[in-house]
Fold:
Amino acid sequence: MLLVLSEEHKEHLGFLPRVDSAVVGEFGRIAVEFLRKGTNPKIYEAAARKLNVNSEIIQHGVEGLTYLLTESSKLMISEIDFQDSVLVLGFSEELNKLLLQLYLDNRKEIRSILSELAPQLPSYHGLEWRLDVQLASRSLRQQIKPAVTVKLHLDQNGDQTTKILQTDPATLLHLIQQLEQALGEMKTNHCRRIVRNIK
Structure:
């Protein structure tokens, strides 16, 4: 699977051939640090002073490198696919090898950082339900108004929470059909390929 870079990202990475390979390695270290701790303008300004360029150019270069490394790590791109993805940038063979080495050295760490950044979603623990039917009221003697009440128990980081939902049977049937359709979609080859690449 090849990584497709937009023109903006190509432009941001266009600064890399103008600097030394040691500087590109340092940009790689800054990119991983950027993922861990967030942006640090002081680092960009210090690097800009050393290289006699605008700090915005340094920031864009690091952000472009961060994007290249994170997207490649997310998709678990093979070495050959990474080289082919970088080939369109028109860099020298030495720079392409350096970027490949940066990717190979940091992909496990980047994947672990990205997994820590992913939101922890609640998981299913239990379900209770009740069917209520209103047969009549003071104003309407013969009326059938069903309602399904669902008490959903969820686990999130060891804490249990409860959500109470109420709906009519027609909406519940539509929801069930949509969920069954989504489960059926997960069995297609396309979805299996995507899930395999996410893991």
In short: The chain has eight helices and three strands. The two ends are 15 Å apart (CA to CA). The longest strand covers residues 123-134.
